[in-house]
Amino acid sequence: MHSPEQLPELLRGVGMTSQRTRDRMTARLAAQGIEDDRVLQVMAGEPRHLFLDEALAHRAYEDTSLPIGHGQTLSQPWMVARMTELVLSESPRRVLEIGTGSGYQTLILSRLIPELWSVERINGLHHRASARLRLLQAHNVRLRLADGGHGWPESAPFDVILLTACAHELPEVLVSQLADGGVMILPLADIDGEQWLTRVRRDGNQSHVQRLERVRFVPLLQGVIR
Ligand code: SAH
């Protein structure tokens, strides 16, 4: 870890990780159609560069996805903003995220939602995300190393479940952990393997599936890697 004297500068960033760079990122997001000011404000204030290896930190605010190790990626800012906007439009109190990854999407959500749970299947990523979220005092987040396909049954039901990895069929176990009227937001592949951001609303024993836009995510996989 870093020494206490280094911390403020590290958090704020300098040069390519400075406040100006963050402001340019959110101006771009607004121009690209992100309308929710709460999302833009939180993303302007939070240090995305701390969720990458030092060698990549200078690219943190580019409009691109970036590698975080173990073959996984941190989604581009636009995707994080869009998914956060979709989650917030439900005014949820309790949200479950599947695919903590770097923890950046988790951090953004944690600033905007009262209670958050997040599951990751790769130990190395889970560990690093825990350290970052602790450093940034995201105290309303509970993290777990597990196969997110099982959800988080003890804490269900959730108002929103967000997947940040692409499913190939509707994960019924997760649908069953939604509150009535609750929503799951996920990348879902069609039979041609094309991925669609998808919104599923639980209505009693039925679910209403709505296809949104084309996206690209890493796949939802089974099991835990220690
Ligand atoms: N939201 C993340 C994106 C990470 S990429 C970020 O902001 O960095 C998607 C993540 O989902 C990867 O870390 C991958 O390991 C994880 N994942 C894939 N299948 C999973 C599963 N069944 N359970 C939990 N996590 C899973």
In words, what does this structure look like?
It comes from Billgrantia endophytica. The active site is at 75. Belongs to the methyltransferase superfamily. L-isoaspartyl/D-aspartyl protein methyltransferase family. InterPro entries: PCMT, SAM-dependent_MTases_sf. Its EC number is 2.1.1.77. It is a single chain. The mean pLDDT is 96. The protein is α/β, with parallel strands linked by helices. The longest helix is centred in the N-terminal third of the chain and has 13 residues, at 19-31. The protein is built from 7 helices and 9 strands, in the order H-H-H-E-E-H-E-H-E-H-E-E-H-E-E-E. The protein has a domain at 68-214: 3-Layer(aba) Sandwich (Rossmann fold), CATH 3.40.50. It has helices at residues 7-12, 19-31, 37-45, 77-88, 104-110, 123-135, 172-175; strands at residues 66-69, 72-74, 94-98, 115-120, 141-145, 158-163, 178-189, 195-203, 206-214. Residues 68, 72-75, 98-99, 101-102, 104-105, 119-122, 125, 147-149, 164-165, 218, 220-222 line the site of S-adenosyl-L-homocysteine.
Short descriptors:
226 residues; alpha/beta; Rossmann fold; seven-stranded mixed β-sheet; two-stranded antiparallel sheet; 7 helices; 9 strands; 28% helix; binds S-adenosyl-L-homocysteine; methyltransferase; SAM-dependent_MTases_sf
Number of helices: 7
Order of helices and strands: HHHEEHEHEHEEHEEE
Bound molecules: S-adenosyl-L-homocysteine
What is the fold-level CATH name, i.e. the topology of the domain at 68-214? Rossmann fold
- Please identify the structural class as seen in this structure: alpha/beta
What would CATH call the class of the domain at 68-214?
Alpha Beta
Identify the overall geometry: globular
Number of strands: 9
CATH homologous superfamily placement of the domain at 68-214 = Vaccinia Virus protein VP39
Radius of gyration: 17 Å
Q: Averaging pLDDT over every residue, what do you get? A: 96
Beta-sheet strand percentage? 25-35%
Helix content: 25-40%
Question: In the CATH hierarchy, what is the architecture of the domain at 68-214 at level 2?
Answer: 3-Layer(aba) Sandwich
N→C terminal distance: 22 Å
